[in-house]
Predict the 3D structure of the following.
Amino acid sequence: MNTKYFGDITIHEDEIITFPTGVFGFEDNTQYVLLSFKDDTEESSEDFLMCLQSVEDSDLALIVMNPYYIQPNYDPYQVSDKIFAEISLGEETKHTVTCVAVIREDFKQSTINLKCPIFINLENNLAKQIILEDTNYSMRHPIAEKEV
C-alpha cells in the first residue's frame, strides 16, 4: 500500500485495525495500520510517536502518541462499559490507548488531544475513538507541558 510518510510498504491483513465507526472527522475511513517512525536500529523499547495510516486513503495519516508519556496519571477509562463493548474490550483484554497529536515545526507549539483517546483492542484489532465528556482533559494539551 502507499502511505503518506513511508512511501510504498507491504502490510499483512492481521495488521489492519478496524474502526467500526471511523475516526472523528474521517468516519468513512475505517481501516488503518499503526506504523512506527522509529528506525529499526533504535533501541528504545517504546515509540514516542506513531502513525495511524488509513488503508483506504494514502493521504490520511494521523500522528498518535502514548498519552501516559505526557500525563502519567491520565485516566481515560471513566466511560460507559457499553462503549468498550462495541470493540469487545473488557478489563482483562490486551489493549493500548493512543491520542492524536499535532506536531508543529516549533515543537513547543505541538499538542495532544487528551479529550478524545483511541482505544485499540490488540486481541481482535478493533478500535474506537471516544470523547471523555465529564473531564477536564483538553483537545489541545501542550506536549511540552509534560507532567512529572
The longest strand covers residues 95-102. The chain has a mean pLDDT of 91.
